[in-house]
Amino acid sequence: MTRIAIDAMGGDHAPHEIVAGALWAAADYNVAIELVGKPDRIEYAIDKINSEGIISTVGGFKNQKIRIDTSKLDIKITQATEVIEMGEAPGQAIRKKKKSSIVLGVDAVATGSSDAIVAAGSTGAAMAASLFGLGRLPGIDRPAIAVTLPTMKKPVVIIDGGANSNCTPEMLYQFAVMGTTFSKNVLGVTNPRVAVLNIGEEAGKGNELAQATYKLLEEKQDKINFIGNIEGREIFSGICNVIVCDGFVGNIALKITEGASSMLFRMLKQEFKTDPLARIAGLIAYPFMKRIYRKINYEEFGGALLLGVKGITVISHGSSKAYAIKNAIRVAKEAFETGINKKIAEFLDGNNSFTE
Amino acid sequence: MTRIAIDAMGGDHAPHEIVAGALWAAADYNVAIELVGKPDRIEYAIDKINSEGIISTVGGFKNQKIRIDTSKLDIKITQATEVIEMGEAPGQAIRKKKKSSIVLGVDAVATGSSDAIVAAGSTGAAMAASLFGLGRLPGIDRPAIAVTLPTMKKPVVIIDGGANSNCTPEMLYQFAVMGTTFSKNVLGVTNPRVAVLNIGEEAGKGNELAQATYKLLEEKQDKINFIGNIEGREIFSGICNVIVCDGFVGNIALKITEGASSMLFRMLKQEFKTDPLARIAGLIAYPFMKRIYRKINYEEFGGALLLGVKGITVISHGSSKAYAIKNAIRVAKEAFETGINKKIAEFLDGNNSFTE
């Protein structure tokens, strides 16, 4: 059985919601779990879930209560005496706090005790610990974060979602390869269409990086299914499956998407409070809004994959609750079981091509 | 009376919707209008509006019919025999097509026949024509596009929205000065709060440009009200009034906001079609959704100001219809009447400070 390590101490709602998500995933997805953190706090959370169940809240909407029989689950607890806080400089922190939950969680993957790690704490610390503890895949200069977004059609992968602020065209080509592998093997997209995030469709558009990347990807069309530039407006149309950009642009793009949709929902909620008729409209529209919210919410995809390291690291949103963690564990399991890293390595070794 | 020139031939719905928006603005905002384009086509549009009125459609929602008595309006038609198409290279096009509607529209401002120009055609051509025809303001290296977005509180100005893909920290400081002047004088914000668009709050975050800009703006805190970095997620919270970034990042940010909100509305519409109860919910919720859509839609702000040239240029969305053009003309009028360029020049001359 695949075993997933979880940094039980990372994120705004650790350890309770993290442990809850882990137990929920163990029950639903038939995975073994390794909870890394302070044993007494983890055990307290497990006891509480045993007696009270999991109260799942998604996107501020109240939800059902889930009962879980933890006695039937394969749960291992690994002690970590330290925790890396959000403000700490990642590189320093992972060198100093060798007994922290994120460092020991990555260690669990490096030593083979678990098959993947899920972390909702400091993204920088998770990246640094993974890079240091697992090492880079051959042929990859820098690991990158692959984030899955919903569209009107199939989900799209944006890579890099924030690992590298300064990039080269070669790095973006490697991101394209990793994103294609992910889209194909984990999301099940046939011959994924790759585009460069840009401010216009024409080849000459954009900053120096975007222009040079366009040229390079055009030369690699025998290897990846490059369709050209894509503008921000078109991301959600679903016309392409993998979008490459540097981590600075990618991170801003993702957070703006989050900010804009959250503002829209808050505005709708406010509008539905303006008068009695509005309140009735709101009550009726509520379940439909909730369904949409779930479709677009990051909690549905659970976490982003850090691609390019010799292991599976899934980075979850810092505000993740049980439902998001459960989904992040599903992503980790699927990534591991499809052997994504082996496929990336094979591809970069020159023995593969994604265009079919 | 302030007179606004309009490129009647630019945009997806030219000339009819452009002319309609211009006449509507003339009637509502007490401005004189100079329509630049092919006289026969402009006159045909005016005749049609005289007999049929303006059918206003905002964001795909059907709207009221507006009757306008054009005989009372101050309308001038200036002949332009050429039109610059969307695909043309802007620099070349404005040099080659000296009788195009955008070049002659900018000329109208340069010669003082009109006080501002509104254009919904090629953004590149409008920028090139303005830079060439009006020249730069003293102290400004490169003009930038200031785009106004709604937030939960006051609107925020994002600058640069797409004029310059490669920027220096000095340029971003100048954008901060221009954005502050705009926010204060046109949007009426007291002591506008300025932030750098970045991927984290700390000073050391982001790419080289963001880091260097942070340092420079910190040194200029006696001149602008710099509050630090802002993440994409927080843009819509309304905690800051002016956000500076390079035009590559800014353009992607704006188009993603547009794409994400349009996807959300499309998803809600789809969801409201799933079954009979959903249809009823949709019918009741419809007017409320429409109100939100109007709040967040670009049509409400009408157009973005090209700041840094010696004149007022308002660039509208290519898909603008009458309502958006009407609002763009309002923005042009306000910018002209508040003397924004004089204020920018005074500020850069060293005799002014925005922190109060």
In short:
Two copies of one chain form a homodimer. Chain A is an alpha/beta fold. Chain A contains twelve helices and 13 strands.
Largest sheet of chain A: 11 strands, mixed
Largest protein interface, residues of each chain: A-B, 56 and 55 residues
CATH architectural group of the largest domain in chain A: 3-Layer(aba) Sandwich
What is the N-to-C succession of helices and strands of chain A? EHEHEEEHHEHEEHEHEEHHHEEHH
Please report the first level of CATH classification, the CATH class of the largest domain in chain A. Alpha Beta
Assembly status: homodimer
Instruction: Give the helix proportion of chain A (percent range).
Output: 40-55%
Can you tell me about this structure?
Two copies of one chain form a homodimer. Helix content of chain A is 46%, strand content 18%. The first copy, chain A, is α/β, with parallel strands linked by helices and 356 residues long. The first copy, chain A, has two domains: 1-140 and 308-338, Isopropylmalate Dehydrogenase (3-Layer(aba) Sandwich); 142-298, 3-Layer(aba) Sandwich (Isopropylmalate Dehydrogenase). The first copy, chain A, has an eleven-stranded mixed sheet, with helices on both faces. In chain A, helix 3 (90-96) packs across helix 5 and helix 8 runs antiparallel to helix 9 (276-296). Chain A is globular and about 60 Å long. Chain A starts with a strand and ends in a 5-residue tail after the last helix. The interface between A and B is large, with 56 and 55 residues.
